[in-house]
Amino acid sequence: MYPFLRLAKELFLIRNAAPLATGEVSVTRHICWPWDLDMFAELNNGRVLTLYDLGRMPMAKRSGLLAMLKRERWGFAIAGAMVRYRQRIKLFDRIEMRSRVIGWDHRFLYIEQSMWKTDGACASHAVYRAAVTSNAGMIAPERVMQILGSDETSPALPGWVARWIETEAERPWPPMQEPVLAPLHRAPGIAPEITHELPPEVTPDLAEESAA
Prior knowledge:
It is a single chain. 28% of the residues lie in helices and 25% in strands. By secondary structure, it is an alpha+beta fold. The protein has a single domain, classed as Hotdog Thioesterase (Thiol Ester Dehydrase, Chain A), CATH 3.10.129. Strands 1, 2, 3, 4, 5 and 6 form a 6-stranded antiparallel beta sheet that branches. Helix 1 (4-13) packs parallel to helix 3. The protein is globular, with a radius of gyration of 20 Å.
């Protein structure tokens, strides 16, 4: 289940916090609870991604992004992530989470987040690409920054992030187009058609990526 109550608590705790400028680090603190564990009695890798919301949303609130989304009736969608896991987090371990916007391009905001243990070790690190969306599609980050009163020119992205962006541009979509014996989109009882011809590569438009 999504941690709605924990998110509400985090937003309550920062209700009087100072505004956060673009690029400044937001720090939140959390505990690994029993319902965050997997079968190996450690913080589940998928749960890590969910818990990063608990740092990302307070950052968005302090920067004015959440208020802008509400005012404009826009949405906020995660379109991709690059994650590294390095240290196990056990039951009742305390975690410090750091979150910041590191830059943007013509489509996405890039958000860097990390989890730190009490001994100073970094447990995980992630970079998300996020899109502000409307019913008409994606909103250009330059416009978002303009509304927020920030510099519309992105800081230079780290080289490893820039290379990730370049690699993502080469990634085929839809993926895994090899024929399968029983695709779910075929009605039951109908024999599958096996073909060795793959459909042409499809390049997603902005609306498709915003739905991701």
